[in-house]
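Friendly challenge for the regulars: who can give me the structure tokens for this chain first? No prize, just bragging rights.
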Amino acid sequence: MNMNKTFFLKKGEHEPRWHIVDAKDQVLGRMAVRIANILRGKDRPNFTPHTDGGDYVVVINADKIHLTGNKWDGKIYVTVSGYLGGKKELTAKELLEKHPTQLVEKAVRGMLPKNRLNREVLKKLKVYAGDQHPHAAQLAGFSEDTPVVEAPKKKAVVAKEAKSVKPAESVKAQKVETDKA
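First reply, four minutes later:
Bragging rights claimed.
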């Protein structure tokens, strides 16, 4: 490969892989960012912005997603039909009850560029409410090569022993120790 030329990924050169994402107890926005990056191919070294170089993503357990704060009642999804009185508002909780997969689809769609490539890339996103999906055959070929995208591990918080020393006394004790040394 000539290092003096800019690399552009061509459509025939790309071989998409399959990834499976378990959405159980994952924060919606953080998970959607990782999914959007995989769909666009930004996690690969041969990323080209104007070409579809991403992989397929299968999301399972979309009905067990987690939202932080007051977003279950505060986040509102609005659709407008164009007719008078055609405005519909659904909270995240109502949307999860009616269409559990749309919560993930809308979050990922909002994190992709708004162009023709968006529609092409979204066809590679497969979202399912339960843990069953019909893509076992596609995932079987990539079982060892494809990692399962998981939520980042939370660091364990180690509780420090609290000393019952008043702030003024602790400063005096530090001064005494430094004077002795």
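The longest helix spans residues 167-180. The two ends are 64 Å apart (CA to CA). Your move, everyone else.
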